[in-house]
Amino acid sequence: MTAAMSSVMTRFRFSGSVDTLGGDDGHQLFNRSAITDFTIQETARSIIERVRTSGDVALLEMARDLDRVDLDSLEVPEDVISRSLSALSTDFQNALRRSARNIERVHAASRPESTTIEVEPGVTVTRRPDALARIGVYAPGGKAAYASSVLMAAIPARVAGVSEVILCSPPSHGGLPAREVLAASAIAGVDRVFAVGGAGAIAAMAIGTATVPRVDKIVGPGNAYVAEAKIQLTSEVAIDSPAGPSELLVIADDSADPAVIAREVSAQAEHDTRAVVVVIAVGEGMAEKISAAIDADIVMQPRADTIREALATRGGVLSAQSVRDAIEAANSFAPEHLLIATRDAQAVADSIRSAGSVFLGETSSVAFGDYITGANHVLPTGGMARC
Q1: Which of 56, 121, 249, 295 is the most exposed place for a label (fewest CB within 10 A)?
Q2: Around Cβ 93, how many Cβ atoms within 10 Å?
Q3: Rounded to whole angstroms, how far apart are CA atoms 207 and 286?
Q4: What is the pLDDT of residues 323-344, one digit of tens each?
Q5: Do the Cβ atoms of 246 and 271 come closer than 8 Å?
């Protein structure tokens, strides 16, 4: 294995197994297991105990201390939620509704049904998928607010027949969650919304306070403190998963347009400075072409600083000798998102056994498809797609 630096991403060349990727850089790319951060652990534990002891008082204090806002009430009024939807542009509203319709269709088609089997004469076993009574959705705020996270979590709950859906999201300077989050809540049919963020929101939904009801399960992405709070509270509430930073792996041969690959890389890396983005290039000179295209694309992006930091720390362009080698690397990596931009992408996909969501062909944009196809983008990270 050899590695050489482009202006943004580390470049590697390998043949055969990705085990040939040695050194700290190669290890960092393929080993995304969570490293225990005792500061995060202790902070989350402290927040959970504050909520357990003081309930709403603790949540109001943390809103003031952490979010820099004084709240009169934790719950967002229904009329404020409905006005948030009407305040968005027509195009934005239509995009949210289109996404919501597709999510509903996909999840309705995969809703589990009751099954009964007579295992031997006189012995019958029935499995019945009963819906939960109440779930809690967490929608991140802070640097960016994703209305899609609300749709992806709340709509499947509605399809499943969950009786009540509540949502927590951090308050902005105006004392309310992001307008886009509130609008998506209206479209998804969320019953109650609370201006509560971070580990405090997870604790409130898991334990219950005078205002925030206790839920049966918590779903939705969040930062490291949110993920840690979910882990610590698993003995008290069910969770979806302690999701890590967003991930994208691209397999591209010399039939792919480097500029298209670069746009997909930027679109994923802009999520978070901790996002993981890896490209496996097959074909003479493809790694160099893709690296140059990425460098050129970044300067046009509004979140260029975030993209650069993400790619400099958790990004790489790998040069593989064959598509077969690339497939082996992809299965070892087990990415959250996999884009296959090769000749006969379907044949490549048939050999993929470890990925959260697979997109076939360079026109099957991950950035776009993640929001609009209806397939859920709450997916396994950190190699958990192997499970």
Answers
A1: 121
A2: 16
A3: 52
A4: 999 999 999 999 999 999 999 9
A5: yes
Both tokens assigned to 10 = 């580390």
Global confidence as pTM: 0.86
Q: Specify whether the CB–CB gap between 281 and 252 falls below 8 A.
A: yes
Q: What is the mean pLDDT of residues 11-30?
A: 59
Dihedral angle over CA of 10, 11, 15, 21, nearest 10? -20
Alpha-carbon distance 14 to 256, whole Å?
Answer: 20
What distance in Å separates the CA atoms of residue 25 and residue 14, rounded to the nearest whole number?
Answer: 13
Sheet holding 315-320, edge to edge: 2-5, 10-14, 315-320, 276-282, 247-252, 337-341, 357-360
148-193 pLDDT, tens digit per residue, is 999 999 999 999 999 999 999 999 988 999 999 999 999 999 999 9
**Angle of helix 304-314 versus helix 286-298 axis, rounded to 10:** 150
- Using DSSP, state whether 225 is helix, strand or coil: helix
Nearest-angstrom CA–CA distance, 92 and 111:
28
Which residues have a catalytic role annotated? 336-337
From start to end of 128-253, where are the E strands? 134-138, 164-168, 192-194, 217-219, 238-239, 247-252
